[in-house]
Amino acid sequence: MGGFLRAVRRLTTALLLAGAGGLLLAWFLASRSLPDYGGRRIAPELSAEVEILRDSRAMPHVFASSEADAFYALGYVHAQDRLWRMILARKTAQGRLAELFGPSALGLDEYLRALNLSGRSEASLRALNPATRRILEAYAAGVNLRLSEARTGLGRGAPEFWLHPDPLEDWRPADSVALLKLFALGASKAQAEELRRALLLNRLPPERALLVFEAEGAADLPPPPAEMGPPPPPPGPPALRSPPPVPDRDAERLAPHVGLAALTSPGAAGASNVWAVSGARTAARTPILANDPHLPLTAPTQWHMARLQAPGLRVMGATLPGVPAVIFGRTARVAWGGAALGADDQDLFIERIAPGDGSAYLTPEGAQAFLERRETLKARGAASREVAIRETRHGPVLPLELFDLAAITPEGHVPALAWTGLAEDDTTLDAFLGLNRAQTLEDALRASERIVAPALALAVADEGGVAMTAAGRVPLRPEASRTRGYLPAMGWTGEGDWLGWMEPEDLPRKVRPPEGRVAAANARMGAEAYPRHISFDWDAPWRLARIERLLERDPQTAAGFRQIQNDVGSDMAIAVSPVIPGPLWKAESEGPPPTDPRRLRRLEALKRLMLEWNGEMRAEAAEPLIFTAWLDVLTGRLLKQGLGEAAARLPGARPEFLLRVFEAGPVGEAWCAAAGSSSARGCQDLAGEALDEALDRLSATWGPDLSAWRWGRAHPAIHQHDPLGERRLLGLDLGWIFDIVHESGGDDHTINRGLMRWTGPQPYANRHSGGYRAIYDFADLDRSLYALSTGQSGHFLSRFYADFSMLWRAGDYATLSMLREDAEAGAVGVMRLTPP
Fold it and tell me: For 222, left (φ over 0), alpha (ψ -120 to 50), or beta?
C-alpha cells in the first residue's frame, strides 16, 4: 500500500511540475512578443529619421519630416500594439477565417468572398488621389517592417499566433482600404433589419408586424406587397425550399468575434453620441465638442490613440489599426467626431432565376446571365472547398445557409445584396485624410463629402463655431417602390432599383446654427419623406432628447460635458413608467392588502420602481435590474405568442414595441390576453404575471432579498478578447486571462450606453458601449480629454493592456495634448526609425 501511495505522490508531483513548466514556457513565449518602445530601427523606405515618443499611456507621438514618413511610423506602431487584431481583420475582409479557425468558419468565409471586399478595395485604389495612395504605400511599408521582425523573432508578433498560426504575409495598400470597408460593414444594420421584417411578415398579420417594427414612422408605412409575404411570389406560386438549407449557426456564432455582430443583431451595429456647442453657450466663450463612438466592447478596444506631426500635418485622436488616418480627433485648429447615421445603405434583392436556365436571372429587360467566378476556400486542418460565387446587377448573391436568408427566399430565387460599401470608387480614405489636414470648419465639411461608407452624422468645431452634417452615400430609390428599402425588394420587377445617390447638398446639414448647438445620437436626422429620406430605421429618440435637454443648461463647460457623457439617466424608463408599471402599481396599492408572498414581493418591487427610483440605471441600485428583467420577460411573452420559436431571433426588451402594444387599444389587449395565462385578461394582467416571473428568475440568481440586488453585478462591462475570451485550454477558462470585466451602469437607452445581448448566461451584460470618449475644449485644445475602455496595447502581458479600464469605469479621463512637454512627462520610451 505504501508503495502505491508513493507512486501516486510522485505522479502528482510530476504532473504539477509539468503543468508549472508548461505555464512558464507559455509565459516565456508570450512575453517574447512584447514590443520594445525604445531604441532604434533601420527603416529602408524612410526619407529621414522619425521619432516616436510614447507618453505615460503608451500613446505614440510621431514626429516626422514628411506626411509619408509619419504614416510609415503609424503603420509600425499599429503593428507593434495590435498585430493580431490587424491580421484577424485582414483575414475577415479576405474571407480567409477558416485558415485560422478551421472548417467551422467556411460558411462565413463564403459570405465574405461573395462581397469581395479585397477585390473591390484594389479597384478603389484608382479612385483615391495620388497623395492618399502614397500614404497607403508608406503605411504598408511601416507595417511590413514590424512583420519582418515578427517573422524572424521568437515571439511571432503576438501571443495569439501560438494558437492560430499565420504566415504573416506582407501588408498591401488595398488591405487598409478593405479594413475600412469591413468597419463600414460592421457599422450598418440595414441588411439585418430587412431580414428581421421579412421574417416577421411571414409569421404575423401585417397589423401586428407593424407594431413590432421599431422604425420611426412605422405606422405610416404602406402595406407590404402581397408578394413579400406568404404565399411566395407568383407565378406558380413556387413552393418554399423543401427541405430548407441547413442553417450555418457556426458562422452566426463567429460573426460577432470578427467585428460583424450587426449581421446577426441589428442592435450591435455602430451607434454613438456626438454633440457640440458654440462659444455663445460656454463659460469660456469658445466651442466644446464631445464624442463617444459606440461599438462592441473588445479586449483590446477597437480604437488606438495616436498623434502625428509633420510639415502640413498636426493631428491626434482615435485611429483604427490597419487604417492610415485619425478617424475621430483634432488638428491644431479643428475637432470632429461622429455617430452612425443609421442610413438605409443596404438592400436585399430577391432575384428570380430564369425558368429552365440556372445560369441566368430575370430582369425587367429579360434574362441576364449571372457573373460567376470560382473561389477556393482553405481551412486549417481540413480539405479545401471550391465554391461558385455569383453576382447580379444589384450585387453579390449571398449564401442561403446564413442569417435565415433561406427562410425569406422561395424556391427558384436567390438573395443578392446592394450596399454602398461595395463601391469601387470608394473615396472614404481621402475624406478622413482631408479631415486630418483641416484648418477650418469649412475644410472639414468639404472633406466629409468624399465619405462613401460608413455613413456618419459628423459634428465639427473650430474657434468660430460648430456644425453637423450627414456624410456618406445614401441611396435614392424610386418613388413608386412598394418595399421602399424596408423589406427585401423583388429584383425582377425593377421597382426597387437604386436610381443613384442623394447629393451632399441634399443631406441634412447645420453650419454655425443660431441656437449654438448640434447633437446626434442615432435618432431621426432630417425631415424629408421617402424617397428623399435617410432611413426608416432610427434609434429611439430618448438618448438624443436627454442630450439636448442637458445642453440647454447654460453656460456649458468641459466638466459639464464629462457629466453628460457619463449620464445614466434613462428617459426610456421615465416614458414607460406611466404606461406599464404605473397602472399596475395603482391597482395593487389601492386593492386589499395582499397576503400571498408573491403578491407581497410584487408590491415591494412596484413600490421601489414607482416611489423610490428616478430612472437612473446606476450600477449600485436594484431598481434597474428589476425594471430591465420585467420588460425582458414581458416582451418575450408577447413575441413568442406571435412568432413561436422564431421569437428567439428577437431577444430582449423592446420598449417601443411594448408602448405600441399597451397603447394600441383592442388590438393590443387581444395580443396581451393571448400571450398570458388563463388569468391574464389584458395587458395589465399580463404585466403583473411578467413581473412575477421576472422576480422569480432574479431571486433564483441573486437571492430573495431585493435590497441586496445590484444592477452592476448583472450588467458587467465585458471587454471580450476575440476569439480567446470564449475558449478553454486544458480546462482553463481563457476569458479569465484575456477578458477585461468590471461592473457598469447604463443600459441600451442611456447616454452612457451599455447595450446588452439579452441571451446567454449573462443576458444583461454590457457588450456594446463607448470604447473611446473625447472632449475637445477650444478654451485650450491642449487640455482636451480622452478615455479608452481598455488600453493601447493588445498584448495581455503588457501593463498598457487594461490600464485605462478603471478610469473609464469611473468616468475619468486623460489629457489629449499636442504639447511636447506633456508627452515627455512620464514617457515610457522613445524610438527612432532611421533610413540606412
Answer: beta
Which residues in the chain come in under a pLDDT of 70?
Answer: 1-32, 154, 204-244, 730-731
Name residues whose C-beta falls within 8 Å of residue 755's C-beta, 6 or more positions apart in sequence: 267, 268, 271, 294, 747, 748, 766, 767, 768, 769
Looking at the DSSP bridge assignments, the partners of residue 788 are: 772
Look at residue 169 and tell me if it is in a domain. Answer: no
Q: How far apart are CA 438 and CA 444, in angstroms?
A: 5
For residues 408 and 119, the answer to whether their CB atoms sit within 8 Å is no
Rounded Cα distance, 780 and 390, in Å: 55
Per-residue pLDDT tens for 109-164? 999 999 999 999 999 999 999 999 999 999 999 999 999 999 988 678 899 999 89
pLDDT at 264: 86
* 657 part of a folded domain: yes
- Burial level of 182, CB count in 10 A (0-12/13-18/19+)? buried
Output the pTM of the full model.
Answer: 0.93
637 inside domain: yes
Name the CA radius of gyration of the chain, rounded: 27
Query: Whats the size of the chain, residue-wise?
Result: 836
Q: How far is CA 354 from CA 375, 478, 492, 527, in A?
A: 24, 24, 10, 41
Range list of H helices, 482-577: 542-550, 558-565, 571-576
Residue 700's CB: how many other CB atoms inside 10 A?
9
- Which residue, 312, 344, 314, 311, is CA-closest to 326? 314
Q: Residue 502: what are its φ and ψ, rounded to 5°?
A: -70, 135
- The DSSP bridge pattern shows strands 814-816 and 784-788 to be antiparallel
Closest to 71 measured CA to CA, from 455, 429, 440:
429
Pairing between β-strand 60-63 and β-strand 304-310 as defined by DSSP bridges = parallel
SS3 state of residue 783: helix
Q: Which ranges constitute the DSSP H helices of 95-187?
A: 98-101, 106-115, 117-124, 130-152, 173-187
Lookup: cell for 354:
430564369
Q: What is the DSSP string of 398-442?
A: PPTTSTTGGGG--TTEEEEEEEGGG-TT--HHHHHHHHHH--SHH
What sign for the dihedral angle of Cα 471, 476, 482, 483?
Answer: negative
Q: What would the grid cell of residue 738 be?
A: 484575456
Domain count, the chain: 1
Residue 629 domain-assigned (yes or no):
yes
Q: Is 237 strand, coil or helix?
A: coil
In sequence order, what are the residues at sequence separation of 6 or more whose Cβ sits closer than 8 angstroms to the Cβ of residue 794? 81, 82, 83, 84, 85, 158, 300, 801
Instruction: Show the cell assigned to 551.
Output: 445642453
Q: How far apart are CA 37 and CA 600, in angstroms?
A: 62
For 199, the 3-state DSSP assignment is helix
Instruction: Tell me which residue range forms the domain holding 698.
Output: 578-614+622-709
First to last CA, the chain: 72
- Using DSSP bridges, classify how beta strands 326-331 and 772-777 pair: parallel, antiparallel or unpaired: unpaired
Phi, psi of 41, rounded to the nearest 5 degrees? -125, 140
CA–CA gap between residue 776 and residue 785 (Å, rounded): 7
Q: Name the helix (H) or strand (E) containing 669.
A: helix 666-675
Looking at residue 129, its amino acid is N
Predicted pLDDT at 723: 85
Report yes or no: 281 and 519 within 8 Å, Cβ to Cβ. no
At 796-825, the pLDDT tens digits run: 999 999 999 999 999 999 999 999 999 999
Interhelix angle for 597-611 vs 623-643, to 10°?
Answer: 110
Distance of CA 513 to the CA centre of its chain: 30
Count CB atoms within 10 A of the CB of residue 557.
14
Going by the DSSP 8-state scheme, the letter that residue 649 receives in this structure is G
